[in-house]
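Researcher: Let's run the pair from yesterday's discussion. Sequence first, then C-alpha cells, for each.
Model: Starting with the first of the pair.
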Amino acid sequence: MQEIFEFLINAEDHLLEFSHQYGMWIYVLLFLIVYSETGLVVMAFLPGDGLLFSAGVIAASGAIDIEWVLILLFIAAVLGNTSNFFIGRYFGDRLLVSRWKLIRQKDLDRTHLFYEKHGGKALVLGRFLPLFRTFVPFVAGIGHMDFHSFNRYNFIGALAWVPPLTLAGYFFGEIPWVQQNFGLIYLALVVVTAIPIVWGAIKLGMSRLPGYKEQPTSGE
C-alpha cells in the first residue's frame, strides 16, 4: 500500500522517466494501466485518478501528445469496463466461490449496495471512486444488466472521467502549489465524491431495518 501511495504522489516523475527511457511505449503503459484498473477486479489497487492527472502533466511538458492521450485513455476506460462486465457475467459466480479468494467479500458487498442504490448511474458515479470504479461493472455483469444500457452509462462515465482529470493535469498540473499538494487534492476529491454515495448506502441499509420509516422532507 505504501508503494501505491508513493506512486500516486509522484506518478508524473515515474511516468516522465519512463517516457524518456522508452519513448512511445509510454502510450502503451498508460493504456494498459487504465485498462487493467477498470477491467480486472484483481487490479483495483492501481491509481487510476492519479494516473490521468499525471498523464496530463506529462503532456503539458511536451513529452507526449495530449490528443493521443485523451483518445487512448478513453478507449482503455471503455474497453476495461466492458471486459469487466463480461467477466462478471460469465465467470463472476465461479470467481466468488474460487478457493483462491481473489475478491474480498466486503468490497463486493459494498459495491452491491452502491449498485442497488444507483443502478446504471453507478457506472458513472463509480468512475470517481477507487475500488468502486473496478467493481461496479463486474457487479453489473453478475446481475446481467442489459448490455445496451450498460454501454450507454459506460461511455458517459468514461467521458466524464478521462477528459476532465487529464485536462486538469494538462492545464494546472505544472502550477507549483498543485504539484506540492496533489496528494491532498486527490484525497479531497475522493471524500467529496464519496459523501453522497456513502450517505445513500447508509440510508439503503437503514431502510432494511425492521420498523424503519424515512422521514418526509419539508414541503411534502
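Model: Moving on to the second of the pair.
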Amino acid sequence: MEKPIRVLVAKPGLDGHDRGAKVIARALRDAGMEVIYTGLRQTPEQIVAAAIQEDVEVVAVSILSGAHATLLPKIRDLLNEEGAQDMLFVAGGVIPDEDITFLKEKGIAAVFTPGTATTEVVSFIQENVKK
C-alpha cells in the first residue's frame, strides 16, 4: 500500500478566518491524504518548523489578510534555508490575479483563488508531489 501524501495546512499572520482552510483540509483528507492543520495566526517560522517536524510533502497556506506578498515568499525562503526546497508549496485565498505571477516567481507552485474547485487542488497536489 502506498504511503499517503502528507500535507500541512497553515494560516499565517493575523488572519482569523479559517473556513476555507478547513474545507481544503477536509477535501484533502477525503482524497486519502494525511493532513496536519496548524490552526490560526501562525508565523512563517512556526509553519516551517511544523512542516519539517511533521515531514510533510506539501505546505498549503490559506491567506486572506492581504499580507500574501510578504508572508508567502518568507515561508518559501525559510523552507529553502531548512533544506526543504523539495516540499511542494501552494497557497489559496483572496489573492489578486495581478499578484499571482510574482508569487509563482518566488517559488509558490500554485495559487488557488476563491471559487476554485477542491478537486482541482487535490489533482494539482497528486500530480506534483515527488514520490
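Researcher: Give me one sentence on the second I can quote.
Model: The mean pLDDT is 95.
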